[in-house]
């Protein structure tokens, strides 16, 4: 029996979760960054971006890659649904710097941690009233 999905949950296909995790592992010990596209709370596309800072605790998506991706998404009628990055040695919770540097208040802010013992540690947040509010994530097959 398939359980109904809550309408407020963000739907993320398992293959995209696997790509995000692989991107984070391959980039470690530096943070990775990327964009997820789709519609509303349904994530459909994965778009990794180069981290120009190449830093363990900070990221900056390469501006030229990001601009080109945004043009491509607009041409295809897609939108940015989420922005993801990794925390190679910290929990999947936004840092004060993450909050200060977050510029897409309508997008889900997805963080994956590699500081785990073999389990997925991934959380999503929305910026609401100046605070990051944790969101429900549903991983689907």
Report on this structure.
This protein is an alpha/beta fold. It has a single domain, classed as Cytidine Deaminase, domain 2 (3-Layer(aba) Sandwich), CATH 3.40.140.10. It contains 3 helices and 8 strands, in the order βαββαβαββββ. It has helices at 14-27, 63-76, 96-100, and strands at 10-13, 33-39, 42-49, 79-87, 108-113, 121-128, 131-135, 137-140. The strands form 2 sheets. The protein has a 6-stranded mixed sheet. A hairpin with a 2-residue loop joins β6 (121-128) and β7. Mean pLDDT is 87; it is low at 1-6.
- The side-by-side strand order for the widest beta sheet comes to 3-2-4-5-6-7
Task: Give the overall form.
Answer: globular
Q: Strand tally, please?
A: 8
What helical percentage do the residues reach? 10-25%
Rg (C-alpha, Å): 14 Å
By CATH reckoning, the class would read Alpha Beta
Total count of domains: 1
Largest sheet: 6 strands, mixed
What is the name of the CATH topology?
Cytidine Deaminase, domain 2
How far apart are the first and last residues' alpha carbons, in Å? 14 Å
Q: Note poorly predicted spans.
A: 1-6
Instruction: Estimate what percentage of residues fall within beta strands.
Output: 35-45%
Q: Under the CATH scheme, which architecture would be assigned?
A: 3-Layer(aba) Sandwich
Helices, by number, come to: 3
CATH superfamily: Cytidine Deaminase, domain 2
Which sequence of SSEs, written as H and E, runs from N to C? Answer: EHEEHEHEEEE
Average pLDDT score: 87
The secondary structure category is alpha/beta
């Amino acid at each position: 029996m398939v359980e109904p999905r809550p309408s407020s949950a963000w739907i993320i296909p398992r293959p995209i979760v696997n790509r995000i995790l692989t991107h984070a592992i391959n980039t470690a010990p530096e943070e990775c960054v990327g964009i997820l596209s789709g519609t509303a709370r349904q994530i459909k596309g994965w778009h990794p971006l180069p981290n120009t800072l190449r830093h363990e605790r900070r990221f900056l998506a390469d501006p030229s890659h990001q601009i080109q991706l945004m043009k491509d998404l607009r041409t295809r009628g897609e939108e940015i649904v989420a922005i993801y990055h990794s925390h190679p040695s910290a929990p999947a919770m936004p840092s004060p710097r993450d909050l200060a540097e977050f510029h897409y208040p309508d997008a889900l802010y997805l963080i994956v941690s590699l500081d785990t013992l073999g389990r997925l540690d991934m959380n999503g947040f929305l910026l609401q009233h100046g605070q990051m509010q944790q969101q429900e994530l549903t991983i689907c097959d």
